[in-house]
Design a protein that fits this description.
By secondary structure, the protein is of the alpha/beta class. The chain folds into 2 domains: 216 residues, Rossmann fold (3-Layer(aba) Sandwich), CATH 3.40.50; 77 residues, no CATH class. It has 19 helices and 7 strands. Strands 5-4-1-2-3-6-7 form a 7-stranded mixed β-sheet, with helices on both faces. Helix 5 crosses helix 9.
């Protein structure tokens, strides 16, 4: 069985994703497309507009054969940790032949050369980033300034493009793991019926209905009840006020007194958008601020982040699977994977897992329950989901 792995958020699933899946299968001649997908909170610090189970089912309906949840600790982290967590899961399965991703350039040789240079100069790059941050520069700018010292102008330019950033991080992780998985880049395409997930979310946010986005998504029925960050503001406000500055200072990614700004501005802001604008500064980009707010909501401390970002925190939590291939796929994964394969959840299963994995899975369940509270749906869907 030949398997191609894809890492995605599907927030929401759109025609560009469908195109990527079709091309990935076509180029690799794979029998199975396996997707590592973010859960209910995403890498840019957003709440998913549709819950992970619905998004997983739509992916299955449109060419994916099995959807595995990317643990929350990675799904809500910066691009480096997001990529590391997802690729580590694929590598631990020992049966993935390819990893396929969209990028602004489809030149794997160029991306790999950049990845190797960044790995070789990693220590000096981080020293340079630290020095830049001391001068009040944002992390994104500090990173670009630091890596530009070791890359050509052309390499620096292409490494700053959003999809290339993730592509390079995927390749870096493959190199560090000495993985046999072959990376394949598919150039992002411009077509009349394809636009980005960000554009689709903006259209939904502004129009509050699905009619404006119908041409961009293969199935709109799952978008009948969608959420935005506005919807989590009340719960977030309670979390900030009840925990206070001393606790917020221990939340992952909170640095240099930002807890005071967060605590003060929650009292001066009428809604989520106003709140993040009040916190934003030259130093702190919106994506980092939004991730911090998700960390507060999900109660992810610096200690949690360090302990859960361990090499042994890899597990395969299957959210959905192609019913016609279910038996064959599960047999194949179980034969080769050296990490837990989880097809259903109960308390006994969690107790019998390695402590790190059990804590990480518990965080995934907590994130799902918070999402269910915000969407006014039943909690503990992870316990009742059937594949």
């Amino acid at each position: 069985m030949k398997i191609v792995g894809i890492i995605a958020e599907f927030n929401p699933f759109h025609n560009g994703h469908k195109y990527l899946i079709q091309k990935a299968k076509e180029i690799t001649n794979a029998d199975v497309a396996l997707c590592i997908m973010s859960g209910n909170f995403t890498q840019l610090g957003n709440i998913s507009i549709v819950d992970k189970f619905k998004r997983a089912q739509v992916a299955i309906q449109n060419g994916v054969d099995v959807v595995i949840e990317l643990p929350t600790i990675y799904a809500t982290a910066s691009s480096e940790f997001f990529a590391r967590g997802a690729v580590n899961i694929l590598n631990s399965m020992h049966c993935i032949d390819y990893i396929c991703f969209g990028s602004e350039t489809a030149n794997i040789k160029e991306l790999t050369e950049i990845a190797n240079k960044l790995i070789f100069n990693d220590k000096q790059i981080w020293n340079n980033i630290t020095e830049e941050l001391r001068n009040g520069i944002s992390f994104a700018t500090a990173r670009q300034n630091a890596i530009s010292k070791f890359l050509t102008k052309y390499e620096t330019d292409i490494s700053s493009l959003p999809n290339n950033i993730l592509a390079i991080e995927y390749i870096k992780t493959l190199i560090k793991l000495k993985s046999t998985i072959e990376p394949i880049a598919i150039k992002r395409t411009e077509q009349e019926n394809i636009t980005s997930a960000t554009n689709i979310r903006n259209m939904l946010y502004n129009d509050k209905n699905i009619y404006s986005i119908q041409k961009y998504v293969p199935n709109t029925t799952h978008l009948s009840n969608f959420l935005f960050n506005d919807n989590m503001y009340t719960l977030l406000k309670y979390a900030i006020i009840s925990k206070g500055t001393r606790y917020i200072a221990n939340i992952n990614e909170v640095t240099e007194g930002l807890e005071n700004k967060i605590y003060n501005e929650i009292n001066n802001s009428k809604n989520y958008d106003e709140f993040i604008q009040n916190i934003k500064s030259k130093r702190y980009q919106l994506s980092k601020i939004k991730r911090i707010l998700v960390n507060i909501l999900l109660d992810i401390t610096k200690e949690d982040f360090i302990s859960l970002n361990a090499e042994n925190n890899a597990y395969i939590h299957i959210l959905a699977i192609n019913s016609s291939k279910k038996k064959e796929i599960l047999s194949h994964i179980n034969q080769y994977a050296n990490v837990p394969v989880i097809t259903s959840i109960n308390d006994d299963i969690i107790k019998n897992l390695d402590v790190t994995i059990g804590n990480s899975l518990s965080l995934d369940i907590q994130a799902s329950n918070i999402y269910s509270i915000i969407s006014n749906e039943n909690i503990n869907k992870d316990y009742t989901n059937k594949i």
